[in-house]
Write a structure and sequence with these properties.
mainly alpha; 13 helices; L-leucine binding; cytoplasm; AhpD-like; Sestrin
């Protein structure tokens, strides 16, 4: 008699096998498995599509040399102040033979790359303001002109890394262990019996600290509920006020103006006009700005 595995177990083993193969391919290709890949590994089909796209953009034939592709990725990520992606592609830029002097800031890069700054800025924050004149200015004949093929690849890279920066922020992805301030990030195993606060399941000590903070807040909420039972006259409004006070005083809430200034300076050196940011294009009482229609 042949014992058959339950359908769910077969499916799970197939997913794990697929993920294992993807991670091996990523490691062989790049020499590392970065934390973005590890997080996306929770959804192997999505990771497969994403990884193939990245591979085509950064490593396959195209009009732009490899080091310039990584520099454009740095410019795009820096526009959103995504230090994780900036650091990752600074390493890749050097690995493929990029000039280390360019990493001192945008002003050290060739003028041709610097000319992308305006369209990078608009694509990142207010893409509806882009007009055909922005495209024409980059394509016009001259020493620092872009060919149409080069510009198409550059624009795809810019928009790709603007989007990826949002993914990095949304998932709270940390730097790799070999980067400054980095630690590992491993997806939780579906068969793991470890506690939620284990390093493997939440990404190193940062995950453990976050879980401890949650436990502290939950304990405070429990005490509030117990005190409510003891005090018959406490209203819902009073309980809501107490809850907000406890939440504010807990370790989960940190002042929004605290920032690593040394890290910011390493990123902002690739940004011109850092004050330029998103502004709603549906402002009432004002003439609507023109939109750029691809057709």
């Amino acid at each position: 008699t042949t014992l058959l595995s339950p359908p769910r177990q077969i499916l799970q083993e197939g997913v794990e096998s697929s993920l294992r193969q993807l991670l091996i391919e990523a490691f062989v290709s790049a020499g590392r498995v970065d934390n973005i890949t590890m997080v996306m590994g929770l959804h192997p089909q999505y990771l497969s599509s994403f990884w193939k796209t990245q591979y085509l953009l950064l490593r396959m034939d195209g009009p732009l040399p490899y080091h310039k592709r990584h520099y454009i990725a740095i410019m795009a990520a820096a526009r959103h102040q995504c230090s994780y992606l900036v650091g990752l592609h600074m390493e890749e830029f050097l690995r493929v033979g990029g000039n280390p002097a360019w990493l001192q800031g945008l002003h050290y890069a060739p003028q041709k790359l610097r000319n992308l700054n305006e369209i990078n800025k608009l694509l990142a924050h207010r893409p509806w303001l882009i007009t055909k004149e922005h495209i024409e200015a980059l394509l016009k004949t001259g020493e620092n002109s872009w060919s149409l093929a080069e510009l198409v690849q550059a624009l795809v890279l810019l928009t790709h890394y603007h989007s990826l920066a949002s993914f990095v922020f949304g998932c709270g992805i940390n730097p790799e262990e070999d980067q400054d301030g980095g630690h590992g990030c491993w997806p939780p195993s579906p068969h793991s019996d470890s506690s939620p606060a284990s390093d493997d399941s939440m990404g190193g000590s940062g995950g453990k600290d976050a879980m401890q903070e949650v436990e502290v807040l939950m304990e405070r909420m429990k005490l509030l509920q117990e005190s409510q039972l003891e005090e018959e006259g406490v209203t819902q409004e009073e309980m809501a006020t107490r809850f907000e006070l406890e939440k504010t005083e807990s370790l989960l809430v940190t002042p929004s103006d605290i920032a690593d200034h040394s890290l910011q300076s390493n990123v902002l050196c690739f940004v011109e006009d850092p004050e330029f940011s998103y502004k709603d294009f549906t402002r009432r009482g004002e003439q609507a700005p023109p939109t750029f229609h691809a057709q």
